[in-house]
Amino acid sequence: MRTACLLAALVLSAMACRPDIDDRTSRVDRLRVLAVRAEPAEAAPGAPVKLSVLVAGPEGPRGDLVADFAFCRDRRGLAEASPASASCLDDTGIVALGASAGAPVTGTVPGNACGLFGPERSAGATGEPSGRPADPDATGGYYQPGRIRVPGTDLALFEVRTRCGLPGATLEATADYGRRYRPNANPALSLTAAGTPHADAAIVAVRAGEALPVTASWPACTSAPCDGAEPYVAFDLASRTVVDRRESMLVSWFATQGSWDVDRTGRTEADAERDSSNTWRAPSTPGSVHLWVVLRDARGGTDVHTVRVDVR
Amino acid sequence: MLALLAPPTLAAAQPRGAAPAQPRLTKPPKVLKFVAADYPPSERKPGAPPSVEVVLRLSISERGEVGDVEVVESRGPAFDAAAVAAARGFVFDPAEIDGVRAKIRILYRYAFTLKDEIPTTATFAGTVTDRKTKKALPGVTVALDTGVQAVTDGEGHFAFEGVAPGARTVTLSGERLTPLRTEETFAAGKKLEALYEIDLGAPPGAGAPPGDDLEIVVSAPTLERRAVSTEIRGDEAKRLPGTQGDVLKVVESMPGVARSAAGSGQLIVWGASPEDTRVYVDGVLVPRLYHDGGLRSILATELVDTVELAPGAYGAAYGRGLGGIVLVKTKRWDEDRVRSSVGVDLYDASGSLRLPVTKKLRVEAALRRSHVDTLLGAFAKNDIEEYFPTPHYLDGQSRVSYDLGKDERLSLTGLYGSDRTSRNAPSIDPLFSRSETKRTSFYRIYATYERTVDGAQVQVVPSFGVDHRELDQRFGEVPTQVTADASRYATRASFRSRVHRLLTLSAGLDAEVASTTLERSGSITTPAREGDVRVFGAPPRDRLNRDTWGVTTVGLAPYAELDLALLGGTMHVVPGLRFDPTFVSVSRKTPVEGDTPSVGAFREDAALEPRLAVRFDPTPRLGIKAAYARVRQPAMPEDLSAVFGNPSLGAATGDHFLVSVSARLFAKTTLETTAFGLLSDGLAARSPSQAPLLAEALVGVGQGRAYGMQAMLRQELARGFFGWVSYSIVRSERRDAPGAAYRLSDYDQSHVLTALGSYDLGRGFEVGARVRFATGFPRTPVVGTVTDTRRDAAEPLFGAKNTERIPAFFQVDLRVSKRFPLPRGELETYLEVQNVTNRSNPEELVYSRDYRTRSTLSGFPILPVFGLRWNL
Predict the structure, then answer these.
(1) Does the interface ipTM go beyond 0.90?
(2) pTM for the complete prediction?
(3) Which of these, B228, B287, B640, B763, is most buried using a 10 Å CB contact count?
């Protein structure tokens, strides 16, 4: 990189050089919220969802810590720089869901979620036009945002995909979408370490400094709902028709010690492969190391796998 | 006085009886006493050469005394006599031949240098012609009220030297003329050129009514429309360091211009947003001054006559922009010989051709294409574009001009420019896989018709052009696409005439029609706009939308300005008025809703824009200026989307105020200091509401203010040197809603100091240097982090908006150039070394992906740029 930078600078006057910054996000060297899973992965307004959180620290999983869940009550303003509305971050605009240590918390998706965070336009005041609908994500979905407070960690935000209608679609497209769309289901993650399948919370032994190839895989999926990379339909804003798509998959790799070759891997929508591989290199000193693999589909579904490694 | 010692000639005899060996000069003579001679007063004429050399042959005795003095190369009796007289008084440390003091003859080059003096008088010259026949009128007596007079020669010319400054009565008389009087105002150190066209009456006896036999027409003096501006001649600008021979890059070094981020090519004037400053070439609006990356301007250097920057409070001829204006004037080429040039340097290759087809018809063309991308490909790894957006650019210009008559000219000009930058950074991490391609292009075709009628100057410039802009970006799974295509029709017509000896009128029409179709998809906050808090390199938000819309804007602005000369011409009051009705039609008032037909939006904004400039020169060396301008800027078509913006946005308004004092410290050294204030209202800003109304993502409630001072100490070309030191202190602030607290604008740059100069060493060598210091742009500090568990990404929490800055920038550039005469033409070479101190200049703040570590993105290290140009 440094060579490329210097070379480019010799050729180009207007280019700049990026400094080397430690960008590794896979190292769990402090208390962190690694994932939140909603069950079901997509819910209609007014429907219950079960929320569970994965908290990890340098010493391993921290299911003992109390996580306080809440849904945000306000949409983030267009001029707001924060990742959620200020009232959600400072707790003045939340719907408390409860707190739990290790156990899931159940909440109900607010009935007005599609108006606040979705395509339904809120009614304006008398004499005023209606409000601007929220924009969907790249899969055409809308989400009820929420936040989790866990002592000792950064504030964490989560989103529950919410079943809403379509923005500005024709009646025909709306009907087509309603007929063909299937709510998202959480994916199911399988893990293979050094060629051997391992169940969640398995224990693996490796030598100090040894490389451990790990493969995350998910089932084949030809029709939704299923626990792989699901096909789904989305409203295409360009053609304003309902189009067929398939979920992309993102795999996040974490470790308390040692290092992963890359922090995140995945498969794009166009890539039909059902697995993604990475290599973890054990530390040079013996000890117990915790690895986590988090699989996320493009529509907010999540699964988590934990591996304990005895480094000898 | 500079003296050059030429090789000595031996005058001593051979020592008797010595071997026939050649005597050897063991010690050359050395001047111990130099006698200075003044530049002869009789030779101190206008246009006198600044340096004259007389070559003498001096006979120097063994005691060092000067004996015979002969003139070898004469420069006229006055110079020769002065040089000989001075040389006779020289005393030398005698020469030694073979270690012994000896007589010697040497060639000595005695140099006279004309010292600049503060002028106290003016020069007045002109021509008297018959208005009908345009023939010169010899024998006309031109008299000043000081008592001096001159008679026109066979060409109708007359001239006066040493005219006392101030308003003077000029009388023209002759055999067939009834004496005529007019008035002219003279300024010290200035030359006033006048053209008097006279209607001769019928010959005596032909019945012409007495006293009604002539009419005098005086050409309108150039009206200074802009109260404060910086104008640089193209021939000077291209020699300055930092320009790499590109004239228009000198704008970056002008006072009031912020130092933009490396590679941005943005033009930030007095803290205004780049899109608020308009660039005109021969009065035709062009979309940009620089190619992407800022390496080059869009116009060939050979075509540029002058470039002028008016940061604010300009005259009524221009409008529709809240910021400054850049006026590029192309050269009027009158030579009857073919000229061409080819050039190449690190960035690009270029060529130009000027061809006189007939005496009246001329054709010009220029072309430039970048090859920096090819160089990168040859010397760097294939993945270099992962890190650096590589610019590809092309521009070309062509012109056909035809002289319709003595004072009438027509030309047709075409301008073209295109850019493409691409950047690909594939990553196995799906969240950080990036690609970006930007394409822009434009062309303009315009006709220029110029005519001088009865002393009035008329110019009409109709133009047509097309702009294309395209951004295709993907960051992870978040796409951003923006496409804009605009067709532009414009006409600029101006008329300027002296309607009274104290009054000059300038009037015209500035008409523009732009039809733009736009398509955009992606996050509403990408691309970012002024006031958006963001972190460099961070993924955009993954909430997406899409819109296509069309905008037609019609502006039809008649304007008029009067230049009223008062107090004997020492004061000029220039009131102006511009009426600028703007009609904006947007294809869609609300976002697409099923099959519902779209309903368009139409808006009309009409307002008077008063302008006023007052210039007062209490002494020939002191000038005071003050100016006010009200300006308006229609909403940008990009902001009129029903999804991403607001189709009902109106025009933003601005008020410019400035006061300026200029002092001529020496003959060619001026110091100009300007204080300014800019107020703007109705700026488009993101809706502050948490629940914005439909089609109101932007609202026109933003306000801005900028104020500060700038100073420029400028040395005009004298003794081979020219340059300037400029300093600007600016504070530019915005607030996004009325009543909100003001914050720093994204484009605030408190201090900008630029010192640059170029010195002609003679023999084709020139050296130059540029030193720049600039405060960094404001940024918003990251004060915390939250975890986005759906995307597995950290998100920053920000502190108060724009409350910290990128560290300051400092850079020194050097330039050396040499011109080599060739059998055909001239070869011009230059080496420009940028950042000679190899300072690591921060260009941007960057964060680790978890926002816990911060560093800076640095600009380029020491960079030599070598270039060649062959001028034929």
Answers:
(1) yes
(2) 0.79
(3) B640
